[in-house]
UniProtKB/TrEMBL annotation:
<dbReference type="Pfam" id="PF03088">
    <property type="entry name" value="Str_synth"/>
</dbReference>
<keyword id="KW-0472">Membrane</keyword>
<keyword id="KW-0812">Transmembrane</keyword>
<protein>
    <recommendedName>
        <fullName>Strictosidine synthase conserved region domain-containing protein</fullName>
    </recommendedName>
</protein>
<feature type="region of interest" description="Disordered">
    <location>
        <begin position="1"/>
        <end position="31"/>
    </location>
</feature>
<dbReference type="InterPro" id="IPR018119">
    <property type="entry name" value="Strictosidine_synth_cons-reg"/>
</dbReference>
<feature type="transmembrane region" description="Helical">
    <location>
        <begin position="40"/>
        <end position="59"/>
    </location>
</feature>
<dbReference type="InterPro" id="IPR011042">
    <property type="entry name" value="6-blade_b-propeller_TolB-like"/>
</dbReference>
<keyword id="KW-1133">Transmembrane helix</keyword>
<feature type="compositionally biased region" description="Polar residues">
    <location>
        <begin position="8"/>
        <end position="20"/>
    </location>
</feature>
<keyword id="KW-0325">Glycoprotein</keyword>
<dbReference type="Pfam" id="PF20067">
    <property type="entry name" value="SSL_N"/>
</dbReference>
<comment type="similarity">
    <text>Belongs to the strictosidine synthase family.</text>
</comment>
<keyword id="KW-0597">Phosphoprotein</keyword>
<feature type="domain" description="Strictosidine synthase conserved region">
    <location>
        <begin position="201"/>
        <end position="279"/>
    </location>
</feature>
Length: 417
């Protein structure tokens, strides 16, 4: 090889341009995508915060942290599903029949959402609940209605003694109705108590007729009752009215939605249902002290004697994790009541919580048995269970449009053992 060619080869090898170039590739930037996601997320958070603030500040009331929290009770042990609440005979066309009472002639009485009280007569062959429906009252007590600016009353708890029907009316207070003449007599006006009654709910009468025990559920009226649950106050009360002296004395206060009341068989104790805490409270009337708090899995409504020395407790709303979460978080509750109507608040309360349960308890507050209707399949959410004189079980509801009567063999009370 010539020297010239060797020199040329050496120059080519040493020349930088002769070396192969390595192309460097950099990953494509995703900053634009991340930026878009961040902006969308930020907008969503801002909207949620804005809605939350709107609900919080437009809420009509300030929600509170409860002084006592509910005890979570599961459907096991004495509350386990053993007995089905079988479907019975329905008496339709009765909007929200909260309570049922039976007189000595087999007539049934119930109060309706429009304020009327209805009598359901026996059939011609004596079958209870199978006869004609008759209006007992129109639902309006003129003088009281005019003074309170209420269009009608709302009869809830009912009791019968002889020919007198005793009525706990959410709007009017306590009055009686003569079952023969239909004459109405006011016993306790809402202003007879200080602070005034807001939501008279249930009552019971001593056997001699001297004492009437009745509950005032909350400082909220029936039209705003859901606020009472969501706000978190325990301002319910129970009173005793002496029919001879006309004096009213308080038996218990600071109750969480005081609902059904029932005298014990010896009339030494009073059972009180606290709906918002799912509790049946037993009060010694001699001392006005609570001797037992029975925690149950449902938000119960009324309580009635079985006729065998025991008591039926009924309800149709099962306590859920959602309810427990709301109870423990007053800020969330305040946002909720600021955003939702009363109707929507009730639907939220019922969310995945429809469950009818009828419990039989004894005077010590022990559970004897339970009857279940999951998802309220056979009945609208229950308010009361009462044993009729023919042994059958009558069921009422606050949200449905009927009364149901269960065959005697399908719901037999154990009774005192």
């Amino acid at each position: 090889m010539s020297k010239v060619r060797q020199r040329n080869l050496m120059q080519e090898r040493q020349s930088p341009s002769s070396k192969p170039r390595t192309l460097k590739t950099e990953p494509a930037s995703d900053s634009n995508g991340l930026s878009l996601c961040t902006r969308v997320l930020g907008i969503a958070v801002a909207i949620i915060v804005a809605i939350g603030l709107l609900g919080f500040y437009q809420a009509p009331y300030t929600c509170l942290t409860p002084e006592r929290l509910s005890v979570e009770v599961k459907l096991d042990g004495p509350f386990a599903f053993k007995n089905t609440l079988k479907q019975g005979t329905k008496i339709p066309g009765l909007p929200s029949p909260e309570s049922i009472a039976e007189d000595g002639k087999g007539n049934l009485y119930t109060g309706l959402a429009d304020g009327r009280i209805i009598k359901i007569k026996p059939s011609d062959n004596g079958r209870i609940g199978a006869g004609d429906l008759i209006n007992v009252t129109s639902g309006i007590i003129k003088d009281i209605s005019r003074a309170m600016k209420k269009k009608s009353g709302r009869p809830l708890g009912l009791r019968v003694q002889d020919e007198t029907l005793y009525v706990a009316d959410a709007n009017y207070g306590i009055y009686t109705v003569n079952t023969q003449t239909g004459k109405v007599k006011m016993l306790i006006k809402v202003t007879d108590v200080n602070p005034p009654l807001s939501f008279t709910d249930d009552l019971d009468i001593s056997r001699d007729g001297k004492y009437i025990y009745f509950s005032d559920m909350s400082i909220f009226s029936i039209d705003e009752m859901l606020y009472g649950i969501y706000k978190g106050d325990c301002d319910g009360r129970v009173f005793c009215y002496n029919t001879e002296t006309k004096k009213i004395e308080i038996v218990a206060s600071n109750l969480c939605f005081a609902n059904g009341v029932q005298l014990s068989q010896d009339e030494q104790s009073l059972f009180v249902v606290e709906l918002a805490k799912s509790v049946v409270r037993i009060i010694d009337l001699a001392t006005s002290k609570t001797v037992k708090m029975l925690n149950i899995p449902i938000m119960a409504d009324n309580i009635r004697a079985t006729g065998k020395g025991t008591y039926w407790v009924a309800g149709g709303i099962l306590r859920t994790t959602l309810y427990s979460f709301l109870e423990r978080n007053p800020i969330v509750r305040q946002i909720v009541i600021g955003l939702l109507s009363q109707e929507s608040l009730f639907k939220l309360l019922l969310l995945s919580a429809h469950y009818n349960l009828v419990l039989e308890i004894n005077e010590k507050g022990d559970i004897l048995q339970s009857f279940h209707d999951p998802n309220c399949e056979n009945y609208a959410c229950l308010a009361q269970a009462i044993t009729l004189s023919d042994g059958r079980l009558a069921l009422s509801t606050y949200v449905g449009d009927h009364i149901s009567i269960v065959n005697a063999e399908d719901a037999i009370a154990v009774g005192r053992v």
